[in-house]
């Protein structure tokens, strides 16, 4: 556990404490991923900053020196599911905070249809209803690897193992509605991406009656 006299902060606070744009972005992420507070968000942001800092340092090294260390970093992120496909160091620099938040245990429990919402998923994890390989896991912020993801389910001693449990029925209904809404969302996004040509109508200047113009001129005099 380490020396309690030498504990270090696991996160870095924002450099600008009062930033309205950051407030709005952080509040949206906290609500979307069901975080307890902004400290949880800052911990993952600090971890992401560490990955990106390592990538920048590796890019500054000669190719023969960075080959092994580059492979270790990319393999780690591939195991955790943060990176996919055939990534490079540039892919690490392109990572966003959402890429890290998607690998949280709480998020995966909801994505797998085991909970009705992100906050419900957090409740199930903290109350001991979620297990990994049959062993209870009670840390919502735990990063789940790609190999561990299929082995996540309900705890053997949890009443949620009963398929007729109301919470399971509600979670299944939410999963069905989400799956049904996905194609509609894709169609809407495609429709929004289509560029509609804008036709600019030529506006003719209004006709001015000469008599009215003379009267107006006389009145001004």
The radius of gyration over CA amounts to 28 Å
Low-confidence stretches: 215-221
SSE run: HHHHHHHEEEHH
Principal-axes geometry comes out as: globular
What kind of sheet is the major sheet? 3 strands, antiparallel
**By helix and strand content, what is the structural category?**
mainly alpha
Number of strands: 3
Strand order of the largest sheet: 2-1-3
β-sheet strand percentage: under 5%
Mean pLDDT score: 85
How many domains? The number is 2
Fold and architecture overview:
It is a single chain. Strands 2-1-3 form a 3-stranded antiparallel beta sheet. The chain has 2 domains: 7-101, no CATH class; 104-184, RNA-binding S4 domain (Structural Genomics Hypothetical 15.5 Kd Protein In mrcA-pckA Intergenic Region, Chain A, Roll), CATH 3.10.290.10. The chain contains 9 helices and 3 strands; from the N terminus they run H-H-H-H-H-H-H-E-E-E-H-H. Mean pLDDT is 85; it is low at 215-221. Helix 2 runs antiparallel to helix 3 and helix 6 (105-111) crosses helix 7 (118-126). It has 221 residues and is mostly helical. The protein is 53% helix and 4% strand.
